[in-house]
Amino acid sequence: MAHLNNTGDKLDLGIIGVGHLGSIHASLAAQSDLINLVGVFDLDRQRAAEVGEKCRTKAFDDLASLLQHAAAVCVVVPTSEHHTVAMQALHHDCHVFLEKPIATTVEQAREIVHTGRTKGKKIQVGHIERFNPAMLAIKDRILAPMFIEAHRLTEFNPRGCDVSVILDLMIHDLDHVLYIVQSPITSIHACGVGVVSESEDIANVRLSFANGCVTNLTSSRISLTTMRKMRLFQKNQYITMDFLEKKTEIFKLQSPDTAPEAGDCSMELSRIGTQENMKNIVYEKPSIPEVNSLQLEIEEFARAVLLDQEPEVTGEQGQRVLETASRILEHIERS
Ligand code: NAD
Q1: CA distance 251 to 268
Q2: How far is 273 from 202, CA to CA, in rounded Å?
Q3: 85 Cβ inside 6 Å of ligand 1
Q4: 86 CA from centroid of ligand 1 (Å)
Q5: Helix/strand/coil percentages in the chain, nearest 5
Q6: Which residues face 234 on adjacent strands?
Q7: 256 CA distance to ligand 1 centroid (A)?
């Protein structure tokens, strides 16, 4: 059970599940300066062999052997398998990066998080949109939104339909709003219907928070168009983020005598308000970092392990997102 040392400054990482997303994890890990990719494992041996060959790493025949050679693993198997595989990895003393959602049930999530904490192992959950350049552009701003609206629409794809659209797509926006708002939820209104699959394919959710913020989230996986947008309104400010186009724009209300901020690429558009209190509408396009979100996410996990830091998206945060998603699903079921 032993664990195995990190090679120099590199993390000995294994990838479990190398289907659609796991194969991308493997190829990015193979290219990373922070990671030593020790191997891959998949129940589909042929798939594992193909990905192993492509990434020039070993395809293990059994999970236990991979776990013995890795200090950490990325778990990229279907959500229904997250708990079983993550618990096995933790029992082998591996740090765990777990794709989103953390698990299928809240009880499973709690057990994963508790075991990780008890064993002193890092758990990071794959809420990748936190690493989307459009979100990174405003990450360090003080945000106190009063209203948030999000639309996440995709065309139909059977992959992911083993769970509701709430767990498949809306989970990203739930993570965003819980991260931004930082206040307890006071009420939930939710509706959703299954049009093509057995679970919800389209849903709308309104969350109210103790600090007064209200969010309105719409997700659909049966749309004819693709959209991933969030609009955020706070005092004297409107922020719009396009996660697909990786674009963020800010519209600010400023009194005419406010000096432009350093590095502000703002321009005056027009004015709004009463005659006594006229404000300029100022447009700002913050600089957008050029990053590959998945690569950044995996490397943040590697850094968290190597430097013994809290991961960017902790197991507790993943658990809270799942708890909220579960409450939403209960509301939909009741209605
Ligand atoms: P997939 O079906 O393409 O791949 C899953 C792979 O896991 C398959 O190759 C399968 O053989 C393998 N597998 C199944 N059970 C296993 C087990 N017990 N042990 C080892 N291998 C096993 O699925 P995918 O689209 O790659 O999704 C995988 C995970 O990634 C899911 O949890 C999904 O929610 C998540 N995901 C996240 C995002 C995101 O935006 N962060 C996007 C897509 C998928």
Answers
A1: 10
A2: 38
A3: yes
A4: 13
A5: 35, 30, 35
A6: 237
A7: 53
Residue with tokens 């004819």: 224
Of the candidates 123, 93, 89, the residue with the CA atom closest to the CA atom of residue 5 = 93
- The residue written with tokens 């960017």 in the block is 312
Residue 273, Ramachandran bin (φ over 0: left; ψ between -120 and 50: alpha; else beta): left
Strand 11-16 versus strand 72-75 pairing type: parallel
CB 188 within 8 A of CB 328: yes
Query: What's the pLDDT tens digit per position in 237-292?
Result: 999 999 999 999 999 888 777 776 654 555 555 667 676 777 788 888 888 999 99
Distance in Å, CA 162 to ligand 1 centroid: 11
Helix (H, G, I), strand (E, B) or coil at 157: coil
Q: Is the CB of 78 under 6 A from ligand 1?
A: yes
pLDDT tens, position by position, 104-128: 999 999 999 999 999 999 999 999 9
Q: Which two tokens stand for residue 318?
A: 């993943």
Ligand 1 binding pocket mutation candidate from 20, 54, 83, 228 (most atoms within 8 A of CB): 20
